[in-house]
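Section handout, structural biology tutorial.
Before the tutorial, make sure you can parse a SMILES string by hand: atoms, branches in parentheses, ring closures as digits. In the record below the ligand is zinc ion, and the chain has 86 residues. In the tutorial you will relate the predicted structure tokens back to the input. Do not try to memorize them.
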Amino acid sequence: MPLCARCTAIYASYILLPLFYFAPKNLFTLGLSIFLQLPMLIDGLTQRWGLRESNNVLRVITGILSGIGQCLFIWFMSYMIIQILK
Ligand SMILES: [Zn+2]
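Predicted structure of the complex:
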């Protein structure tokens, strides 16, 4: 498979992007979108540094959280651009 479990989960979670249209808009904060990247960063970096070994279940979970965070970031930035252009 050309993509790892983590990247597959990230791309798969992009499918959720249209559903964020129905979510409360105060959910779209830069802080939350960055916070959702932390599990993936911790999992990836501790594995990279040889401190521990990750597994595919952990990679998928952290990948989904990261993908949702990226969706929130896209919505947040889109919303900000629209507010500026108004
Ligand atoms: Zn990957």
